[in-house]
Specification:
The protein has 335 residues and is of the alpha+beta class. Helix content is 32%, strand content 19%. The protein is built from ten helices and twelve strands. The chain has helices at 70-78, 118-137, 198-201, 208-224, 232-236, 239-254, 258-267, 274-283, 303-312, 323-327; strands at residues 3-5, 23-25, 31-43, 46-55, 58-64, 91-93, 98-102, 106-107, 140-141, 150-156, 162-169, 176-177. The strands form three sheets. It has a seven-stranded antiparallel sheet with strand order 1-2-3-4-5-7-6, with no helix packed on it. The relative contact order is 0.10. Residues 1-13 have a biased composition (Low complexity). This is non-specific serine/threonine protein kinase. Residues 1-21 are annotated as: Disordered.
Length: 335
């Protein structure tokens, strides 16, 4: 049985953040003390908060969960609770629809990539990919793979070097379990605009290959420090222009093979599909003066890494390798 005691009278859930010093008793009988609000997001007439809290001197994350999703999220996470590379809840406060998670120090987006060795960067990519593979093995689609949802802890080696461990895929609140025979999610604009797959942009059928595409874009960031679809212009553009700027970069970097693009067209039902027509019109904007820049030809990037990414970013989702296949790629075996 969970309970709450606060230094001031507690408001109804979602009206305002829990005050500092609030003590919440969980379903496991543990008492968590709110240390601070890490984020708050207004939506659907309430605030959704993420808190840092402590229990017996150890830090935890407490997250508001949509009440109608609470039991589903708990059930989904049980499928991967034993994966060392997927962060799942360790406790709950059901009466306030709050889940408790282990605290992880930092997200990939906020790590100084330039200071990491190639060995450290490869280990981060491998471990995060292993977490995604564990999810896909259980037919779970994450739907929002991006650097902020890959988190880890730091520690100092004997020589003083800062390295990262406990790499985990996080934020499974938008994840979905699909039966093996299901085609996928439809009519859904999943994920963040700078990381989502082409079929997510199309609101087409999305399944585990959509996560693979997003992971590849995230891996490029982890390896090179480059957010390949991000530009300042796109970041500040209105939605329609933003989509055009980002999708044009998808086509520039990854829509290279004719056979692959034909597969993408077939995947979306043929040439009459409105999104297919839109992408074809964007392809016509390239020229000799403004050519495409295929990622597979980026000479500044390691050839084996380029090969791995190209296999994960085919426009046709059916051609992309799986997370397990990606983990077997020769790039991971290189020093």
């Amino acid at each position: 049985m969970s309970s709450i005691s606060a230094p001031t009278s507690a408001s109804p859930p979602g009206q305002q953040p829990l005050p500092m010093g609030t003590q919440i008793k969980s379903s496991l009988g543990k008492s968590y003390v709110i240390d601070g609000v890490l984020s708050e997001r207004p939506a659907a007439g309430r605030l959704w908060c993420v808190y840092r809290a402590t229990h017996e001197g150890k830090q935890f994350i407490l997250k508001d969960i949509i009440p109608g999703d609470f039991d589903y999220v708990i059930s989904l996470q049980k499928h991967v609770e034993h994966s060392p590379h997927v962060r799942t809840s360790v406790d709950s406060i059901p009466e306030r629809d709050i889940l408790v998670f282990p605290y992880l120090e930092k997200g990939l987006l906020h790590i100084d990539i330039a200071t990491l060795s190639s060995v450290a960067k490869k280990a981060i990519i491998r471990d995060a990919l292993a977490g995604l593979a564990d999810m896909h093995d259980k037919h779970i689609i994450h739907t929002d793979v991006k650097p902020t949802n890959i988190m880890m802890d730091s520690f100092k080696q004997d020589n003083g070097d800062l390295v990262w461990r406990n790499v985990q895929i996080t934020d499974l609140e938008a994840a979905v379990v699909l039966p093996p025979e299901a085609k996928g999610l439809t009519d859904r604009l999943s994920g963040n605009h700078f990381w989502r797959s082409p079929e997510a942009w199309a609101r087409g059928i999305q399944n585990t290959p959509s996560d693979i595409y997003s992971f590849a874009i995230t891996a490029i960031f982890a390896w090179t420090g480059s957010m390949v679809f991000f530009t300042e212009k796109a970041n500040h553009a209105p939605p329609e222009e933003q989509a055009e700027l980002i999708l044009r970069r998808h086509l520039s970097f990854f829509a290279i093979e004719v056979e692959d693009f034909e597969g993408f067209i077939a995947y979306h039902g043929g040439d009459d599909n409105a999104f297919v027509k839109y992408l074809k019109s964007l392809l016509c904007t390239f020229s000799a003066e403004d050519p495409r820049r295929p990622f597979g030809m980026w000479q500044q990037v390691d050839p084996q890494f380029r090969d791995l990414i190209c296999k994960m970013t085919y426009m046709d989702p059916f051609r992309r390798i799986t997370a397990r296949e990606a983990l077997q790629h020769p790039w991971f075996a290189e020093d």
